[in-house]
Design brief:
15% of the residues lie in helices and 30% in strands. It starts with a helix and ends with a strand. The chain is of the alpha+beta class and 150 residues long. β8 and β9 form a beta hairpin. The strands form 2 sheets. It has a 7-stranded antiparallel sheet, with no helix packed on it. The radius of gyration is 19 Å and the shape is globular.
């Protein structure tokens, strides 16, 4: 009986693990993994409190910060949450080719012209040759602070 229970648990574990791996398929990115560690004090960045607000970070402010491959694009989404993307275009894959926020609040690559949806937090391609969404980083809000990590 104990042996059958162990086999059942093992099978269930394998199935759950396979499902987790399969669900990560959309997260593949051409942007290389780079360290990301950033803290934002919203009281010092009051413009980020508005829905639809964006800010690009390309220079570290302390020796402890890491800004990914091409820098960080921070977005206050229309559902009142925050998201962070790597500024590097996943089609160009160069840390110096960074997407730029447009008046319609999409992000556009100045080289290939790909446009990305950012205010819904998805980073999905709207138009252009890119087939990959923007690389997304984790955000952890805590009080007046946002912590961005890889």
């Amino acid at each position: 009986m104990r042996f059958k229970l162990s086999i059942s648990i093992l099978r269930a574990s394998v199935i759950v693990f396979a499902l987790i791996l399969a669900s990560c398929g959309d997260n593949k990115t051409s942007i290389p993994p780079m360290p990301v560690s950033m803290q934002i004090n919203l009281l010092q960045e009051p413009t980020l409190l508005s829905l639809g607000a964006t800010k690009s970070y390309t220079k570290v402010s302390t020796g402890l910060e890491s800004l990914g491959f091409g820098g960080i694009l921070l977005v206050h989404t229309f559902d009142d949450s925050y998201c962070a993307f790597d500024l590097a275009c996943p089609y160009e894959v160069k840390n110096t080719v960074r997407v730029e926020v447009q008046p319609d609040l999409s992000a556009k690559c100045p080289e290939c012209g790909s446009r990305y949806r950012i205010t819904d937090g998805s980073g999905w391609v709207i138009s252009g040759p890119s087939k990959e969404k923007l690389k997304q980083y984790h955000i952890y809000p805590s009080g007046n602070y946002l912590y961005v990590t890889y």
